[in-house]
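Aim 2 progress update. The chain analyzed this quarter is reproduced below.
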Amino acid sequence: MNILSLFVIIPLIMMAVIFCINGENKKLIRSVMTIGGVALLAVSVITTIEYFKEHGADPTAAFYLQEQFMWYERFNIRYAVGIDGVSVAMLLLSSIIVLTGAIISYAIENKAKEYYLWFLMLSVGVYGFFISIDLFTMFIFYEVALIPMYLLIGLWGSGKKEYSAMKLTLMLMGGSAFLMMGIFGIYFNSVPEGCDPTFKLDEIAAHVTMLRQNSSDVDTSLIDWEYIFFPLTFIGFGVLGAMFPFHTWSPDGHASAPTAVSMLHAGVLMKLGGYGCFRVAMYLMPDAANDLAWIFIILTGISVVYGAFSACVQTDLKYINAYSSVSHCGLVLFALLMMNKTAMTGAILQMVSHGLMTALFFALIGIIYGKTHTRDIREMGGLMKIIPVLSVCYVIAGLASLGLPGLSGFVAEMTIFVGAFQNADTFHRVFVIFGCTSIVITAVYILRVVGKMLFGPIQNEHHKDITDANLYEKIAVFTLIAAIAAVGIRPLELSDMIKDGVNVISTILAK
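Predicted structure tokens:
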């Protein structure tokens, strides 16, 4: 059995074990979740080692550790898995956040068994999506990742949870409809004469290359289908990536979700959008990507700045971080659309960096809310004197978000803007400068929140009695901080690995 399939099998085994446990035995359920999370992280580390071995033996391959078997022969649908450097980075990110999210979820008391089952179902979808190299299989895992969100928010959320869950589900399912049209459009139209239709990514890419090399095909079928289905596919994934104006589900969904679900949602699930735009839309429809990128550069540029400005005027900690996520995820798509190797590498680094940072933010917000029973920064103040460990961790998360050197945010954003500015035309450079303003705006809302919430006089006398982080909260938070620092201090190992995956697609886009 291929090691990649373990990313799906382990959560399924965990679900089966938890299903058989008495729901009142929360300690055993939490132990299963922790052991399974550690196992998934170990598998992701082993996968990284195996990737480097295979890449060293054959640096030109599109995907490594491949495994496939036929699901439905009539339409050539296969369970096909494989990885490149980008996939490995996403698997490492997912494993860290699933483990820390499981630990943070120790605070869940209401129907903990059912909560963890849906949490694991969400994890199955996320892992399956990142290892899939068959479009149909990828879409199935994509839907598996979306469906549990409705119940996790609707049953275990807070505030306007039913409204937020329904809004999120309807908007993401709307994006799925666009995505389905795009996938089947690719399947039926990317077929040179004498070839069979296929859903496998590298085979489709080879077919598209054949069509591009034939001038008559380029003049007729290629341009026709690419220009129709690229926007559908990019928008379909862009909805999950919170691209303007399809972002409105994100702040409400984040604000109402339970802490660990917010961590997984913002840290990993939203990355499916950027990964899908990169892996599917741009890889398989390069001509349309080059010609239509300007439209989406405008939309993503608005996302970057609008999200940052919106975060400035919020008073709810979760809404601040939610709009910050709109800005940072917009930066991912913005960088991908710059179409050069450096900017695209920065986009994937940003996916990893933002995933870790936003998971840390939501973990801290959830812990602080559990102690103070408020997320309104106007009702907070002086928390540094009361809960110093959590306060210092929040400052570290804020410094990473605003791009302090030595932390992951600086590495990702510098790579993005340096790469984006390599485009010498006026249009691209104007939008790069426009996007750079988000750095200043981010500093404004981060420093505002830190100053208002952590320093100054204590606003609520009842807060004097709260306690600092307990052991399991410290383990989860310190793990995320260590990962953020590791990326910031030693970025080249991760950057070089990502660059290996980016090279294949950037070369196709440059032709």
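Residues 139 and 433 are 36 Å apart (CA to CA). The chain is about 75% helix and 5% strand. These observations will guide the mutagenesis experiments scheduled for the next reporting period.
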